[in-house]
Design goal:
Largest sheet: 22 strands, antiparallel, barrel
CATH architecture: Beta Barrel
Radius of gyration: 24 Å
Number of domains: 1
Strand content: over 45%
CATH topology: Maltoporin, Chain A
Number of strands: 36
CATH superfamily: TonB-dependent receptor, beta-barrel domain
Low-confidence stretches: 1-50, 659-672
CATH class: Mainly Beta
């Protein structure tokens, strides 16, 4: 087996379930989950390995994979962050939480973004609760794929995965040294420089290095004195080391560093409606490290060890209030997996510690310590029928013992694939709900006695594939209990409370893809019906910022060593708004984009037009509120694009290695 193939297997080992990593069961020739796409050497592309050693299309838990070809397309649109990659995936919505800084989180099937666990190579390198700004600080330069599991996944990944899991899997070194450099500039005065280099370091070793510099100037698009596009300057650096021997033992080590200065709020000399200056800034420094190891144990199975640590320092400025704080996350896990006939199993112990320390408001300091036990059994009842059961018990130091089960079923008659899955999970409340991202902690009352937020979710997936046609229909539902929200207690004070009653989410997703030679056309539609108890205490209301209808149509032509040309059309329907003085419902809108890339030897020239018809929220209403909200916000919620039309272009240089050129495999791979 080549180093490249072994490295691909190691990529899977970084994502073992039921916590965020994958592992191979010990067997003479372990099966790995592969897509039907082959690389330029004719080898199957390994998208991930599972704890059971089954192919991903044989796994009862549905995993959707955004492959490297589509990631490369999105890199040409936004080289500085992963928001575009995720926002254009069905069932995922990137919601802006703080217009002044551009902060955003990821909502999965209508659930709030704080319930989504964001991982890197199966490790919580961005924290147990990744800050909303963290999404915009992760460059996609070295991503090999993105893996998405929707619905309550606490049984698989712990308390931070109440709504789902997104795992960012890094590229692995190939058999030959390779390097890439990307230069990008935008019509909004933004610039990006990124680099990636990887090389084998011996028969069993490999290494990679990724770095980038990104900047954006402040932009006031409607000339009201408020910055619509925050300015920032950021650099990132991440070295990685890979090792695997012929006996199946492996080691993966990653280190990361990031520093950013971000500026928003009022322009110098401009004021908010009460006549005061209100600059809003954030300085961030983040350092992390992680390790994943696997070792066969004779007579038992395969032993897996994982661990990571992250520290992130923030300095926030909200008008005259400076908040200085630190977030820390420690994680460790040990598990063992094996198989017996048609049954595969895994079990282990885990520990995660999440801490917050504020020099400005120490009353909000917390440390969550969560040891846990987990296990899973998968049994193949017949060649077409597989049943999987998972369970996890977490011993939370603040919210007590929590039990999170999940049951999944896979049935594959002929060309059809049918999956049914249901589970329960919990989330430990913190002060950092969406409004706090925009306003800070200065007007929040000390937290009282809160209950853990819980959810029960279920889904039914039906897929069909024949020749050039691929289609999938998903029905999903969630019932959430004890969710938290901010309630005003004075004109300038709010408190975090558990909401009485249930939040109910019901919906469906439809995907249809057709491939013809170098052309791929993909259409999708998502329906979400989400309701929650009305804050007035009477009846129910539609959950704010949750469009009932959204759809997309993407057409892409890609030719090996020639280039690509693509058209994207996205529709977002009406959505209820909360505490907006200008309207109660957002208007429906379209976004249209065009992308072109041409290959000239080692250089690839690209040009991308986003939001061609210049859809922008500030064309309808101001972002600034007439008066300040009780939670401290000066802005309304974002329900439409705020950047308008943006044109960007640049060049990518590729050196060495056997590079994979654009191919007709572009697009989201449905794990059927």
């Amino acid at each position: 087996m080549s180093f490249k193939s072994r490295a691909a297997l190691l990529a899977g080992a970084a994502f073992l379930m039921p916590s965020p990593a994958l592992a191979q069961a010990e067997q003479p020739e372990p099966e790995t989950t592969v897509s039907t796409v082959e690389d330029e050497e004719g080898e199957p592309i390994i998208v991930q390995s599972t704890r059971s050693g089954r192919r991903v299309q044989d796994e009862p838990v549905r995993v959707e994979v955004i492959n490297q070809e589509e990631i490369e397309e999105k890199i040409l649109m936004r080289p500085g962050n992963i928001a575009t990659i995720l926002s254009e995936t069905g069932g995922l919505r990137v919601q802006v939480t703080a217009p002044a800084l551009g902060s955003a989180n990821i909502r999965v099937q209508g659930m709030d973004g704080r319930f989504t666990q964001l991982l890197a190579d199966g490790l919580p390198l961005y924290g147990g609760q990744a800050s909303s700004l963290g999404l915009l600080q992760i460059p996609p330069t070295d991503l090999g794929q993105v893996e998405v599991i929707k619905g309550a996944a606490s049984a698989l990944y712990g308390p931070s995965a109440l709504g789902g899991v997104i795992n960012l899997v890094s590229r692995r070194p190939r058999d030959e040294a390779e390097a890439e450099v990307l230069l990008n500039a935008t019509t909004r005065n933004g610039q990006d420089v990124t680099g990636y280099a990887a090389t084998p370091l011996g028969p069993d070793w490999g290494g990679s290095l990724t770095g980038g510099y990104h900047r954006q100037s402040t932009q006031d698009l409607d000339d009201d004195g408020w910055i619509d596009m925050p300015g920032y300057e950021r650099w990132t650096l991440r070295p990685r080391l890979f090792w695997e021997n012929a006996d199946g033992a492996s080691l993966f080590v990653t280190l990361g560093a990031m520093a950013e200065e971000r500026v928003g709020g009022t322009l110098p000399g401009a004021t908010v409606p009460d006549g005061t200056l209100f600059p809003q800034t954030q300085d961030t420094e983040r350092f992390d490290m992680g390790l994943v190891a696997a070792m066969p144990v004779e007579g038992l199975g395969t032993l897996h060890l994982r661990g990571s640590g992250m520290t992130q320092d923030h300095q926030h400025l909200y008008g005259e209030v400076l908040e200085d704080d630190t977030h820390d996350t420690l994680f460790a896990e040990a598990s063992i997996s094996g198989e017996s006939g048609a049954t595969t199993w895994v079990g282990g112990v885990a520990y995660q510690e999440d801490g917050f320390r504020s020099d400005t408001f120490p009353v909000f300091d917390y440390t969550y310590r969560v040891p846990g036990l987990f296990g899973q059994v998968e049994h193949e009842l017949s060649p077409d029928l597989t049943l999987a059961g998972s369970a996890r018990v977490d011993f939370h130091n603040e919210f007590g013992t929590q039990f999170s089960p999940r049951l999944s079923l896979l049935y594959k008659p002929g060309r059809w694939t049918i999956r049914a899955s249901g589970g329960r999970g919990f989330y430990a409340p913190t002060p950092f709900v969406e409004e706090i991202e925009a306003a800070g902690l200065s007007q929040l009352e000390p937290l009282g006695d809160l209950e853990a937020e819980t959810a029960t979710t279920g889904s039914l997936d039906v897929g069909y594939s024949r020749g050039p046609i691929e289609t999938n229909v998903t029905l999903f539902g969630s019932d959430l209990q004890d969710t938290t929200r901010l309630d005003p207690v004075a004109p300038d004070r709010v408190q975090l409370v558990n909401v009485p009653g249930k939040t109910r989410i019901r919906g469906s997703e439809l995907l249809l893809r057709y491939r013809w030679e170098a052309f791929v056309v993909t259409g999708s539609y998502v329906f979400v019906d989400a309701t929650e108890p009305d804050p007035s205490g009477t009846g129910r209301r539609t959950k704010p910022l949750t469009p009932k209808h959204s759809a997309s149509l993407v057409a892409m032509w890609e030719k090996h060593d020639k280039g690509r040309l693509g058209l994207e059309i996205y529709y977002t329907g009406e959505q209820a708004l909360d505490d907006n003085p200008y309207r109660t419902e957002g208007k429906p809108y379209f976004e249209v984009g065009l992308l072109g890339e041409i290959v000239l030897g080692k250089a690839r020239l690209f040009l991308n037009a986003e939001n061609i018809f210049n859809t922008r929220q500030t064309k309808y209403d101001p972002l600034i509120r007439p008066t300040r909200a009780p939670d401290g916000r000066w802005t309304v919620d974002v329900w439409a694009p705020t950047e308008g039309f943006v044109l960007n272009g640049g060049v990518r240089f590729k050196f060495g290695g056997a590079h994979q050129s654009p191919s007709t495999s572009s697009g989201r791979t449905e794990m059927e």
